[in-house]
Amino acid sequence: MSKAHPQHTGPSAMTSPAQLERLGEHLRKLRLLQSGERLEALLQQAAANDVPYADFLEQVLSEEVAPKTSKNVAMRTAMARFPFVKPLETFDFSYQPSIDKKQVIDLSSCHFIEHGDNVIILGPPGVGKTHMAVSLGLKAIEAGYQVLFTTAAHLIGSLAKAMAEGKLDDKLKFYPTPRLLIIDEIGYLPIDRQGANVFCQLISRRYERGPMILTSNQSFGAWGEVFGNRVIATAILDRLLHHAVTLNIRGNSYRLNACSARPTTPIPNQVGRFELPRVGRIRLPLTRNSRTSRLLIWPKNSL
User: Fold this and answer.
1) How far is 295 from 47, CA to CA, in rounded Å?
2) What domains lie within the chain, and their CATH numbers?
3) What distance in Å separates the CA atoms of residue 20 and residue 24, rounded to the nearest whole number?
4) Burial annotation 218-255 (CB, 10 A radius, 16+ → b, else e)
5) Given the DSSP bridges, would you call strands 274-275 and 270-271 parallel, antiparallel or unpaired?
6) What pLDDT, in 10s, does the model give residues 91-145?
7) What pTM was estimated for this model as a whole?
8) Which of 183, 88, 203, 205 is nearest to 140 (CA)?
9) In the beta sheet, which residues pair with residue 283?
10) In 49-100, which residue ranges form alpha helices assigned H by DSSP?
């Protein structure tokens, strides 16, 4: 009675040189360069471990997809025009306990983009609004979406310039193109009537067509003052909040905290052979050979 030979379920180690050459040529024509360079090693490894055909094919394709995905992510990140690149994993949730971390993690899955929802992040300066917006934008890029980051001032300035040049319609077609548009710093600078009008037109163009992430240091109730017109502000908010998730960060500024934690260096009252003036009495000019000088004395209550 003869022994049954084990059936090989994976690629055979007996690949002929001619077949290996043909496979390599096919891979080069398909621009599967990673697999082409490692084809022989991959085949030998698969044969030695008796890898099933499906697993072998998955391994080959994975080696091709990984570098291409990394390259595409890097390209889309550069095109997004982020002011910095900070992943969500670097956000300090312990410093801002008012944020629902579970909600943010859920947003990082990018379901809000699929559903067409906006994300509006409110809070005073320095609490991490821009960091949060950028981090969610990076997650969107990793998920394969095209993202564009801009500040409200730059966006409105760009639209106003296009309007003056008679190219507003073309510019309004540009900003709805990215799947996710991030508008940062609404409320930091005053917006005139023309700026409010073009901004409202953009929001209308993207309404129920493309989700946005917006950050502002002003509450919704103050947007009438931000845009200089309560009617326009109401129209903007009506469209933004129809499908939206709001994150309200109530906490301390990261930047101010960093400044307060930074050690201070005492300032000497003498540098070399020159004695520095004390507060309240400054002689000008501060030169060695000055023949004339002016004495400025500030009242103590003005210091």
Assistant:
1) 92
2) 17-73 (no CATH), 88-255 (3.40.50.300), 270-302 (no CATH)
3) 6
4) bebeebbebbebeebbebbbebbeeebbebebebeebe
5) antiparallel
6) 999 999 999 999 999 999 999 999 999 999 999 999 999 999 999 999 999 999 9
7) 0.72
8) 88
9) 295
10) 53-80
